[in-house]
Amino acid sequence: MSTLVLELRQGDLLVVNGAPLRFRNRARVELTSRARFLFGKQIMTPEAATTPARRIYFALQAAYIGNDEERERGLELARDLVAEFQGATTSGLVRELLESALALAQQDECYQALKLVRRVMQHEDAVLRDAEPAIPSRPPSPPGEGAGAVA
């Protein structure tokens, strides 16, 4: 197996086999054996799991880097969340991505599953952004006030 070298900045978080490591200064880390790890922006906090796709990501994250019990619960929760999302979406692509992500996770390829769910999150963000109503930059003026009003 080849080694993987990670460049981490001060304050970065790295989770290896369920153990969180925060770096106090800039570091270069070399992983010389197979490990379950995420770092930086790949790590989702519970507070950030605010949409259906993000909740799936968070569940798969637990299935990937959690302890044995957390991994089992994470995969079970991901199955339920994927089924719910697939039932609600009209996008065939999203259904395919979620099906593939779940299959990968069940084969213990959770890192690859997380990559697919990140694509679903991007799609979800675009759909939610397009669905937001246009908000005027300032409220309309009451009749008789503002531009063109005669005092």
Overview of this protein structure:
The longest helix is centred in the last third of the chain and has 22 residues. By secondary structure, this protein is an alpha+beta fold. Helix 1 packs antiparallel against helix 2. It is globular, with a radius of gyration of 21 Å. The chain has 2 domains: 40 residues, no CATH class; 88 residues, Four Helix Bundle (Hemerythrin (Met), subunit A) (Up-down Bundle). 48% of the residues lie in helices and 14% in strands. It is built from 4 helices and 5 strands; from the N terminus they run βββββαααα. The strands form 2 sheets. The chain has a 3-stranded antiparallel beta sheet with strand order 3-2-5, with no helix packed on it. The protein has a two-stranded antiparallel ribbon with strand order 1-4. The C terminus is likely disordered.
Q: Count of DSSP helices?
A: 4
Order of helices and strands: EEEEEHHHH
Unreliable sequence segments: 145-151
Number of strands: 5
CATH level-3 fold name of the largest domain: Four Helix Bundle (Hemerythrin (Met), subunit A)
Assembly of the depicted chains: single chain
Features:
151 residues; alpha+beta; Four Helix Bundle (Hemerythrin (Met), subunit A); 2 domains; 3-stranded antiparallel sheet; two-stranded antiparallel sheet; 48% helix; globular; disordered C terminus
TL;DR of this structure?
This protein has helices at residues 52-65, 68-88, 92-106, 110-131; strands spanning 4-8, 13-16, 19-22, 27-31, 37-39. With 151 residues, it is α+β, with helices and mostly antiparallel strands. The strands form two sheets. Strands 3-2-5 form a three-stranded antiparallel sheet, with no helix packed on it. A two-stranded antiparallel ribbon has the order 1-4.
